[in-house]
Amino acid sequence: MTKKAPPGVDPRLLGEKGFLNFLYVAWTQGLGLPEPTEVQYDIADYVANGPRRGCIQAFRGVGKSYITSAFVVWKLLCDPSLNFLVVSASKSRADDFSTFTLRLMQELPFLNHLLPDDSGRASKVSFDVAPAPASHSPSVKSCGVFSSALTGSRADYLIADDIESWNNSQTQNMREKLSETIKEYDAIIKPGGRILFLGTPQTQESVYKQLGSRGFETRIWPARMPSERETQGYGSALAPYIRSKELESGKPTDPLRFNEIELLERELSYGRSLFALQFQLDQSLADTDRYPLKINDLIVTDLDIELCPEKVMWCNDPDKAWRDLQCVGFNGDRYYRPFDTAGGMVPYQASIMAVDPSGRGADETSYAVVKSYGGQMFVLECGGLKGGYGPEVLQQLAVIAKRQQVNQVLVESNMGDGMFSSLLTPVLHKIYPVAIEEVRHSIQKERRICDVMEPAMNSHKLVIDRKVIEKDFLSTQELPADQAIKYQLMYQMSRITRLKGALRHDDRLDALSMACQWHVDLMARDTDRQMREHRRETMDLEMEKFLKHAIGRKPTGSTWFTVN
What we know:
Helix content is 38%, strand content 17%. The chain is α/β, with parallel strands linked by helices. The chain has three domains: 11-221, Rossmann fold (3-Layer(aba) Sandwich), CATH 3.40.50.300; 295-523, 2-Layer Sandwich (Nucleotidyltransferase, domain 5), CATH 3.30.420.140; 532-564, no CATH class.
């Protein structure tokens, strides 16, 4: 930063706190706006004096992009040799940022000397300020997040302004592509340079959420004062200015920008979920709506291969949470033991094994064994096998079918036109003769999976053996950490959405949904009624035995003993 002010520039606009003074002048004289609010000043202070790697998340409409654009001009006023690279989700969005930067230089007379001249680059999307020394990199350059123009770029400051949008973060593949792209930013920044993200997360899997593990500090300014619970959810990311304000929960944090009436109007217009995302920077509600399958809805217990409880009751009591099971769900997700069981131990009514074949690529040949009784489904096994159509895979599937004593094997026939069934049938006949049936689907896979699994889980009808979860986690540990989790059933279950291509790997969950679909007809049976019928049958049988012993013969006519 220059120590001496350029001609015609007030020295108070420079120095450590000079940006706040500059922002006041830019707002009131350059743009004809009222003086910045306290929240805007607090954001500006973080922009000017924050860490070398930072992420700003502030409610929509607070003007974080305007503030940062003014910061670019201020830094060029202090040191014209600096280079700035502005990246946004779309090229037009990035161009708007650089165009506004030029506009500020035009509107404030003491900045006119910075305007580009004929000696350097002078376009709105790539320009040099007049005092800038010769350089391969322009003073300010804008481009889209996936632009080829990023290759070979160099900058002192990289400003990522809303690089994540709904259009580029809908599916897992999109999010991974975006995540890999921003890793290149460190190669663009000069030694000692700075990277600053401005944005609003679109999902729990947002790239902004991952920045903490990459050494970035996040600062959040919500539109309403958060409750105690919400404050804990923000953690250390909540702006100290917001945390220090003595406001009632739900009150506007920046009433000069948005008062209570305006926030209520926007909440009605946006809807609760989108408002929480755009104005409260709270992605938990958005994720609740977006991801339909909740790990917390499962019942996890130890299951027997042959017998099950007549009724298993769900709960989410913290005392019932499994402490020694690795949970790959979202923050706050837990596996819970049943609250209690009712009735005795009875044989399963049906036992199905579903198989989702794969080729020889990265996907697995996945399988799931699901049994049912009285409207509840019990998951005894679920996993994946590498090897495509190989003999080892076929033999392992047959062994699993024999161990679990399944009544029928279902095979997805969409791939290979029934070839997998033809290969599996003789192996089954040799190891465990059982009926095999092909299943063909025409509905979009993600929608089909959610439509089957969501009602079963929401009504707490899905019971999973503890060993399934343990094996699911351990089965992928030989893979790199960033790949291992994506093959796991529990990860797939918690991250599936109804959007096409939501997950890169969904084989285990697909096999589980196939098996559950087969049991859907049995789900309509009322569990309590099934228990009463079983109790009545048992009591009738005991009464017959008693009467035969007491009078020496089996009673005639209808059974007179009734159990309510």
